[in-house]
Amino acid sequence: GDVAVLVPAAGAGVRLGPGRPKALRLLAGESLLVHAVRRIAAAPCVHSIVVAAPTAELNAVAELLAPVAPVIVVAGGATRQESVAAALAAVPAGPGIVLVHDAARALTPPELVESVAAAVRAGQDAVIPVLPVVDTIKEVSADDAVLGTVDRSALRAVQTPQGFRRDVLAAAHAAAVDPLTDDAGLVEKQGIPVRCVPGSEYAMKITRPFDLALAEHLLAAAPA
Ligand code: C5P
């Protein structure tokens, strides 16, 4: 493989309700992180996996993942961006392509890892998986007055894994000032073009209790 996958997994998961850090919450008896890493490791392009774990859970995460796949575990940071930067710094020499993939997208099919990596290998600097937006989207004021309706046909919901040429991602993180919620955003700020590829509904982000319940139902059908 020529791909390193960074897995930010250091978030608290406040929106999921009280409990352990989100990546360690259970889905059908296994942590979200185990589900996610198993699917990443099933993609033939993957050379190495670096997980950014909550500082208090470094040993627990290493033990959890040892039977699943060879992984490098590092301490995450206060923001997702810091966690990604910590993981990026631990990537071994070799892979020229780096993917960043949220542990919270636990059911992401290995095929999506392959297709994002393939688009970078084919010459793109930065690649994101996207889905069309199904809801009508309104822009609103702070007091809930509707300001306008956004043209839905020009919008996409963005998933992970996001794929980059390794030097492009490293330069974007080195130049980063304000924390952003995704890595492609940092690359955009560098003026580098970002391309979309089709995402997967299975790559949904498990954020709220409803998502966890939905993921339980999807698990049996999810490609692995
Ligand atoms: O909070 P959100 O759902 O956007 O988090 C996306 C991913 O980033 C999750 O996998 C979470 O564990 C990770 N994260 C992190 N370090 C943080 C915050 C979030 O690795 N400080």
Automatic annotation (TrEMBL):
Signal sequence segment: none
UniProt pathway annotation: Isoprenoid biosynthesis; isopentenyl diphosphate biosynthesis via DXP pathway; isopentenyl diphosphate from 1-deoxy-D-xylulose 5-phosphate: step 2/6
Site for Positions MEP for the nucleophilic attack, residues: 152, 205
Record's catalysed reaction(s): 2-C-methyl-D-erythritol 4-phosphate + CTP + H(+) = 4-CDP-2-C-methyl-D-erythritol + diphosphate
Broad class of enzyme this protein falls into: transferase
E.C. designation(s): 2.7.7.60
Site (Transition state stabilizer): 15, 22
Pfam families xref list: IspD
Keywords: Isoprene biosynthesis, Nucleotidyltransferase, Transferase
GO molecular function, one term: 2-C-methyl-D-erythritol 4-phosphate cytidylyltransferase activity
Function: Catalyzes the formation of 4-diphosphocytidyl-2-C-methyl-D-erythritol from CTP and 2-C-methyl-D-erythritol 4-phosphate (MEP).
Protein family membership: Belongs to the IspD/TarI cytidylyltransferase family. IspD subfamily.
Entry protein name: 2-C-methyl-D-erythritol 4-phosphate cytidylyltransferase
Originating organism: Micromonospora sonneratiae
